[in-house]
Amino acid sequence: MHVFGLDSEIAGFKRHVEQRERLLSELAACAKRLADKSVAIAKDVGTLHAIFAGWKLAESGTASPSNDASFVDLLSKSSKHSPLSASHVTDVATFPCSPNSRWMLVLQRRLSANVKYMLHQTTDMKQLLVEREQALTGTASPPKDPSPPSSTGSASSPSTLSFSAAASFSSAASSASQLASRFMSAVEPPAVALEEQQRRMRHASELMTRALMAEEMQRFRSETSKGLEDFTNHFACAEAQMTKRQRTIAVNMASPPPASTSEVSAAAVPKSRASYGKGERKRTFHSSHARKFALEVVARDEASGAPTAAVCLFCRHFGREERAGKKRKATANFKYFRNSFRTDLYVQHHQSQHPRQWARYSNCTDEAKRSFFPADATRPAADKQALVKTQDIAEAAAAARASPAESRCWFVLPKRVVDVVTPGRAAGTGAEGEQTWQPSAFRACDLVALAVTTRSGAGGQEDVHERPASSQTGPSGASGATEKYYRVALFGRMELDVAVDSLAVG
């Protein structure tokens, strides 16, 4: 059973070797074609560099240094490898090609060599199997019987018989009897023992042959696997280098010129609804969600005016709540909802980051929600005429000033500076009937008088006290005198930018 299994394995191995020989022959032919093409392309690249080198020499002798210096530099970059002429190239291995054609050398030197090695190994193994089959066939065939000896060889010819044979017959007979007795006394081996000895010899020879064959099969498999691994590694390296260089060339050719500052700013603006493709689903922002889910729109599309970003008012005014059992402190970043406005995301954020505030806010009425946050940002947007009224501005300022959390979100601007840079832009009336600056983009902007008292001592420290604008006394600039300031409530980066832009128009 074991011998039959080994014979089947050898037969299958022979078919496998024949299949490998056929495929490796095709692969060797393909590698040879690639090597021939790589040699031709390498020669063409060398000729191209030689032409650029000659062009550089010609331009260096005739060009003007002041006008054509940049052009000569470009030619220098093109001919920096300085390869030999194509007529001097005899072997691509000694050809100093450019980096873009090194992968061709890999195909010629590495791939072809590996394929040829594997093909030779397979051919030798096939020849070994054929010789083994021939040897087994010759051993199994029965040997031809030798021609029987001639009968005349055993008997004496008549010419050799002497007339004295009859006289010596008695002596010959005695000698024959002695020889016969000697042969009879010897032990002749039986025919069965001879056949068993021959069978044992054939069995031992077959075992040694099979052991050597199994060892050779194992060696062939390991050598072929190693050669194929080297071949695939070199081929993958060549393909990767070629793909990398093609990608680099494509990126360099398709790269746009350096963008201006305005283009960079426009790229930073969130995409509008029209800019989204079919695969990018976008949900629009509903104005009713601002009060319902405590949100405020902070960015809009420049073209359509549609909201593109909204901020959580709980994060802005109260911060994120500390959760029990959490070792890490809650982040101070605000939560922004951009482009995709989904109600489930609103609720999920509020329940996880502001559970107590969200529970209070959800139970409030619409009127209570209007005054839930300082400087209410959730009340419906009014027209510009309503925003510039002194009463609305005063209410917004009082609400913002009453909140301790917003005490650090106020900025003071000298009125004398505002009057200079924004002439004729007064839109309100102050407490004394004078025209005041009331930009509609601010939540709160009121006119106050600040008293500055300079204390003597190191550092010249100053104490600033706030008092109503109507109580201004003394000349401006004197110690203890007051000066009018616009106190502006700025709660976001966008409002700060608006304030700076408003003062920069002059």
Radius of gyration, CA atoms, in whole angstroms: 53 Å
Number of helices: 16
Main sheet attributes: strand count, strand direction, barrel closure: 4 strands, antiparallel
Spans where pLDDT lies below 50 across 5 or more residues: 81-98, 148-167, 260-265, 268-280, 376-390, 457-462, 468-479
Helix vs. strand class: alpha+beta
Mean pLDDT: 67
Entry keywords:
3-stranded antiparallel β-sheet, alpha+beta, 506 residues, 4-stranded antiparallel β-sheet, 9 strands
Strand-helix topology:
Blueprint: H1 2-62, H2 69-78, H3 102-140, H4 151-154, H5 169-185, H6 191-254, H7 261-268, H8 288-292, E1 295-300, E2 307-312, H9 313-317, E3 336-338, H10 343-353, H11 355-362, H12 366-370, H13 384-387, H14 390-401, E4 410-414, H15 415-421, E5 428-429, E6 435-436, E7 445-454, E8 462-467, E9 482-489, H16 493-503
Antiparallel strand pairs: 1-2, 2-3, 4-9, 5-6, 7-8, 7-9
Helix pairs in contact: 1-2, 1-3, 3-6, 10-11
Describe this structure in words.
The protein has 16 helices and nine strands. By secondary structure, the protein is an alpha+beta fold. Among the domains are: 2-137, no CATH class; 288-370, no CATH class; 384-503, no CATH class. The strands form three sheets. It has a four-stranded antiparallel β-sheet with strand order 4-9-7-8. The chain is elongated, with a radius of gyration of 53 Å. It starts with a helix and ends with a helix. Mean pLDDT is 67; it is low at 81-98, 148-167, 260-265, 268-280, 376-390, 457-462 and 468-479.
